Amino acid sequence: MATPQHITLAQSLPPRLLHFFKRFPPPQLSAATSSAAAPPSETITIAENTSSSDPNAGASTYEVPLPTSTATSNNADVGWKKNPFLAFKNPSTGNWHPPHYSLRRQADLFKLAQTHNVLPLMPPSPKHPELKAQKRIEHGLRVKGTGEGQRVKGKYWERTLKTRLETRRKAMESMPDMINLWRERGHGRGWKKYPSGKEGKGTAELFDPGMRHAWVHERAPTSTA
Amino acid sequence: MAKKAKSRTIAVRLISMALTGYYKTFSRPRQHRPLSMLKYDPVVKKKVLFLEQKRGGTK
User: Fold this and answer.
1) CB distance B53–A196 less than 8 Å?
2) CA–CA gap between residue A101 and residue B56 (Å, rounded)
3) Does residue B5 lie within any of the structural domains?
4) Residue B41 and residue B47: Cα distance in Å, rounded?
5) Residues in chain B within 8 Å Cβ distance of A182
6) Is residue B46 in a domain?
7) The domain containing residue B47 runs over which residues?
8) Cβ distance of A175 and B15 shorter than 8 Å
9) pLDDT digit string (tens) for A171-202?
10) Taking a C-beta distance cutoff of 8 angstroms, is the pair A124, A85 a contact?
11) Which of A14, A16, A30, A222 has the greatest number of C-beta atoms within 10 Å?
12) DSSP B27-54
C-alpha cells in the first residue's frame, strides 16, 4: 500500500529518478507493500500514485503494469528487473545482454539519488558511492602495493638497504680493533685471512675481537723465548 | 704446444673492510704476499683497512 511517506517522497524526486523507480521499483518498497497486502495489484497502485504525483510522467501508463508483468515476462525481463545496472545472461539462450542503463547514466542516477537521499533504494551498481569508496581503499593510489593490506615491493637497493647499512655499521664498529691488529701483525705481514669478495659475508670470518687475544697469546711465548 | 708463460705481475683487487662495496685495484708481483693497506673509503668517509680479495680457483 502506498504510504503517505512514499507519496511525498515521490513528489520530491526529480522526474528522471522517478522514472527509474517506476520502471524498476525498489525491492524494499514492493516487499513492504506485498507483505502488507500481497497481491501484485498493490504495487501497481504505488506506481499509479507516483505517476499521478509526477507532472512530467505523461507516458507512464504503459510502465504501470511492469511489476505484474515480471511474473509472466521472459527471462531477459526478469534479469533486468533484478538489477538494471548489471549485465544479464539469458539462461535459456546463453546470450549476454548489456545493463539497461549505461555506466554514464548509472552515474547520473546515483548522483541524483545521493542529492535526494534515496541511495538505499538504489540497486547495487559499480557506480554506487559505497562500492566506489571500497574500491578506492582497495586500490590505494592505483600504484601497485599502495592498497589496503599490500606492500610496495620497491627496488632491489631499497629492499636490501637496511641489511646493508647494518653490516656496514657492524664492520665500522670493529674497524679500530681490526686496524690495530693489522698494525700489530706488521702491517699485513702476519695477516692470514683475506676476503673472498662475495656479498653477504661480514668481517666476522676475517676478524673477531677474540681472535686478537689468541694471537697475542701465541706471540707471547715466542717473544720471551 | 707450450703454454703461454704467466706474467710476472698480477692485478689484484683490494676490498674495503667497511663492507661498502668500494675497492681499489693494484698490481703486485705474483710471488709477493697479498696486499693490505689503509686507504680512504669515500662511502663511510674514513680511512679503513683494505684487504686483497682472494683470487679465483681457476688461477
Assistant:
1) yes
2) 71
3) no
4) 6
5) 36, 49
6) yes
7) 10-52
8) no
9) 999 999 999 999 998 888 888 888 887 766 66
10) yes
11) A30
12) EEETTSPPPEEEEEETTTTEEEEEEEPP
> What confidence category does residue A221 fall into, taking pLDDT thresholds of 50, 70 and 90?
very low
> Where residue B27 sits, what CATH number does that domain have?
2.20.28.120
ipTM over 0.90: no
Q: Is B20 a member of any domain? A: yes
Instruction: Find all residues with CB under 8 Å of A197, minimum gap 6, and list them.
Output: B13, B15, B53, B54
Domains: count for chain B = 1
Higher pLDDT, A92 or A28: A92
B52 touches chain A (CB under 8 A): yes
Residues of chain B where predicted confidence (pLDDT) is lower than 70: 57-59
Residue of chain B nearest A206, judged by CA positions: B17
E strand or H helix that includes residue A122: none
Grid coordinates given for A180: 690495530
Chain A residues touching residue B48 (CB < 8 angstroms)? 172, 175, 179
Query: How does pLDDT run across A110-144, given as a tens digit for each residue?
Result: 999 999 999 999 999 999 999 999 888 888 888 88
* Closest by Cα among A99, A106, A96 to A20: A106
